[in-house]
Amino acid sequence: MDKQTTFTAMSDSTAKDYEIIMEHAREFVSGLPDRILAHLALLKGDTGGYAVDRYTHCLQAATRAFRDGKDEEYVVCALLHDIGDSIASTNHADLAATMLEPFVSEQNHWIVKHHGIFQGYYFFDHLGLDKDMRDQFEDNENWQACAEFCEKYDQNSFDPNYDNMHIEDFEPMVRRVFAKPKKSIYKKNDGIS
Predict the structure, then answer these.
(1) pLDDT for 82-126, tens place per residue?
(2) Which residue among 5, 26, 30, 167 has its CA within the 20 to 30 Å range from the CA of 121?
(3) Angle at 76 (CA atoms; ends 23, 193), nearest 5 degrees
(4) What local confidence, expressed as pLDDT, does residue 69 receive?
(5) What residues contact residue 184 under an 8 Å CB cut-off, 6+ apart?
């Protein structure tokens, strides 16, 4: 795509300029699944001290969710729940949730956003923290769903002998989930929000 605007300040832009920008944006958004999968691959080799690397952990969580009959969107959330570990180590759940938010249900977004504190149920006490910190959210309608995610798919997905599915099995799912936002950040759904 070789068309470009000529303005140097947005206050000088025109509707025609934004036709050009939106054409570029749609093309850029179409490459989102490839960029997400490439970023997920950055987790390869980094065990963080665990028995498997973070990439394998993500594959294992997604495999468990898939084999348990969870829907495609949920499986993709399981695959990507720790994608933020490489660049947002202390708030990785927030990064993953922000990335997923326009494309997934409110419940799946909430699970990904809060899984870090819910996962603490299994180890916070070893760090001198309150393992029941998740209970601050006990009145939230998604509390049980997040607790289940951590119990069935996250806290137990560090097994080097588990028969994980391959990333190729999940790629079509990632492409379908990220094909079109479920909600737009703009009033008019332009296909890029």
Answers:
(1) 999 989 988 999 999 999 999 999 999 999 999 999 999 999 999
(2) 167
(3) 25
(4) 98
(5) 102, 190, 193
Q: How many CB atoms lie within 10 A of CB 172?
A: 11
Q: Averaged over 57-70, what is the pLDDT? A: 98
Token digits for 72? 């495609």
Whether the Cβ atoms of residue 57 and residue 157 lie closer than 8 Å to each other: yes
Report the pLDDT value the prediction gives residue 27, as an integer from 0 to 100: 85
How many other C-beta atoms can be found within 10 angstroms of the C-beta atom of residue 10? Answer: 9
Q: How far is CA 89 from the centre of its chain?
A: 14
- Which of 42, 100, 78 is CA-nearest to residue 156? 78
User: Is the pLDDT score of 188 beyond 80?
Assistant: no
pLDDT at 187 over 60: no
Walk me through the domains of the chain, giving residue ranges and CATH numbers.
13-177 (1.10.3210.10)
Q: Residues near 1 by Cβ (< 8 Å), separated by ≥ 6? A: 23, 24, 27
Measured distance CA(75)–CA(170) in Å, rounded: 8
